[in-house]
Amino acid sequence: MEEKFRWLVGFVLDDGLIDRLLEVLWHVESVPNVRQLTDLVARR
Amino acid sequence: MNVEEQVGSFIVETRWDGLPKAVRNQARLCMVDDLGAALSGTLTRASRITGAYAAETWPGDEATILLRGRRAGVVGAAFANAWAANAFDSDDGLRYAYGHGGAQIFPTALAAAESRGLDGGRMLVAMVVGYEVAHRVGRCWHDSRQVYQACGSWGSVACAATAAHLMGLTPEQAWGAGRVAAAERALPTLRAGRPSGALRQPGDRCAPRWHGVPLGRSGWGLELPQPGLEPGEDGGEVPLAGGLRAR
């Protein structure tokens, strides 16, 4: 799944941001506010 | 406890700590899959159009329209992100419902959770609720109908359940939201369906009646779970109740 995600998202975000995003996603149940996730993907 | 109470309680009272580990892992995978599809889908013209339309039609600061640098009301953000999520058809498919679930459920959960400042665990649980309802309603309807049940039919109910969980409705209100979704949104889609077995034919490429109608569901599902909304007189005859009882 991570490979698919990296391939698809690689068209719109750089590798550094994808790494940060995946770090949040794999532990999203520990994120106190979903806004922390959406802030990462608000703009290109 | 009757079926209405069971379903309503499941929608409202499901908690992260009560989910099996396998379900938690699957929820994370679905979320990653859905978000990946949505982010890449923002490259499409359809996403650009629906993003602009959503910001104009449902203005607000409640939730994020992905990668557009724009915000909108919660319904608008869910609507725009749902279009993006299905734009390349790279999103998940539900084996028992025969259609796209995540492209409707995830944007609903994301927008509703963001608008309420909820944590990631609550969002994941709402997705689990949505997927479970989608699978069960889709399977029941396909078992009892001779026409294909398009994504937006059972998807409406799934999105209503997803939103109801995050909006903190009571079990009774959550059941009512599902009935309204089934009665007011699903049936017109069913009438546009095609004979069972013809799930996809050569030349089917996101035709408006095929995907466009369903993808409105993510937004409509969010509009439905308002306390006080009740289904119309024919709401009780929607196959949801009968199908669930049969199970």
Report on this structure:
The complex is a heterodimer of chains A (44) and B (247). Chain A has 44 residues and is mainly α. Chain A has one domain. In chain A, 55% of the residues lie in helices and 0% in strands. Chain A contains three helices and no strands. Chain A has helices at 2-9, 15-26, 35-38. The radius of gyration of chain A is 10 Å and the shape is globular. The relative contact order of chain A is 0.16. Chain B has 247 residues and is mostly helical. Chain B has a single domain (3-246), classed as 2-methylcitrate dehydratase PrpD (Orthogonal Bundle), CATH 1.10.4100. Chain B contains eleven helices and two strands. Chain B has helices spanning 3-13, 21-41, 45-57, 74-86, 102-115, 120-144, 151-167, 171-191, 208-215, 217-223, 239-246; strands at residues 63-65, 70-72. The longest helix of chain B is centred in the middle third of the chain and has 25 residues, at 120-144. The radius of gyration of chain B is 16 Å and the shape is globular. The model of chain B is unreliable at 188-215 and 230-247 (pLDDT under 50). Classes of the chains: A mainly alpha (44), B mainly alpha (247). The A-B interface holds A 1-2, 4-5, 8-9, 11-13, 22, 25-35, 37-39, 41-44 and B 16, 24, 28-29, 31-33, 35-37, 39-40, 42-43, 63-64, 66-69, 71, 88, 90, 110, 113-114, 117-121, 123-124.
